[in-house]
Amino acid sequence: MKAIVCNEFGPVEGLVYQDIETPVPSQAEVVITVRACGVNFPDGLLVQGLYQMQPDFPFVPGNEVAGVVSKTGEGVTHLQPGQRVIALTQLGGYAEQVCVPATHVMPLPDGIPMQEGAALVTAHATAHHALKQRARLQPGETLVVTGAAGGTGLAAVQIGKQMGARVIAVCSTDEKLALAKAHGADLLINYQKRDLKEAIKEETAGKGADVIYECVGGDTFHACSRSMAWQGRLLVVGFASGEIPKLPVNLALVKGYAVVGVFWGAFTQHDPQGFSANMQELLSWYKDGKVKVVVDEALPLADAARALSKVMDRQVKGKMVLVPDISEG
């Protein structure tokens, strides 16, 4: 079968589209024929050796897929061959088939397209976990979302509205802000046209933000760290700008807010039951039209490097998806 293989850390252009062995399920595992796999910012960090996890070589990146169960291992009773599913794969998603622990595979309801299902697993689940378990966002609170037109930022806008927050979207262009507004943002800040710290102060009548979903880093984080309300929660989600900022901790002391890390991958390992419950709630919201995946572009699996470059360059509105050519292999 075909897959995207990383043989050494380096630029995404070094990834190789090649044949590898078809997986065989062990006990409590299933093999999924992949119909779509989501492309995420951490995938690009991973293949460059810049992520928290550094797998042994060679490895296949990709941590979220949608597809059809092709084989089940011993002991798997809740999934059947031919069933539509989505899965958290950790690794191996950029391939025509992937072997996954059955605990990380969920039925995909009819009516949710494969490409949208694949792109739902990581970005929406990260935003959901961040706002529900980490921020404990309450109805009526003010939520600021940076990078609000990207995959996880747009998800945070949608989920924040579903949880009853007043959502302020922060983006670099009016076009991106229009997308955030179309998905529920109440107020918009173009940080290329307005000073971000002053804009947040103005839009919150001087109070500051109760919760900030911060996935950009760099100067954006510095502005946010000075824009928190009393007892606010500053969520550290990622660093899409490429700069990991340093926090003057006296700000948290004087302004009385919490800085809260969000590592969804670790959450899925430490609290698999919480992860499963979150996914069921997300799928329910999706079926009810309360959240939606926006697929910016779907590219052939062989074009993984191009898809990752677009994500890493912050040129994506919503999510990128890779689609294997199931006529091969």
From TrEMBL:
Record SUPFAM superfamilies: GroES-like (SSF50129), NAD(P)-binding Rossmann-fold domains (SSF51735)
One Pfam family this sequence matches: ADH_zinc_N
Domain Enoyl reductase (ER): residue ranges: 10-322
InterPro entries per UniProt: ADH-like_C, ADH-like_N, ER, GroES-like_sf, NAD(P)-bd_dom_sf, Zn-ADH-like_protein
Residues making up the signal peptide according to the UniProt record: none
CDD domains (alphabetical): QOR1
Family annotation (PANTHER family): QUINONE OXIDOREDUCTASE-LIKE PROTEIN 2, SHORT-CHAIN DEHYDROGENASE/REDUCTASE
Protein name (Swiss-Prot/TrEMBL): NADPH:quinone oxidoreductase family protein
Organism: Alteromonas salexigens
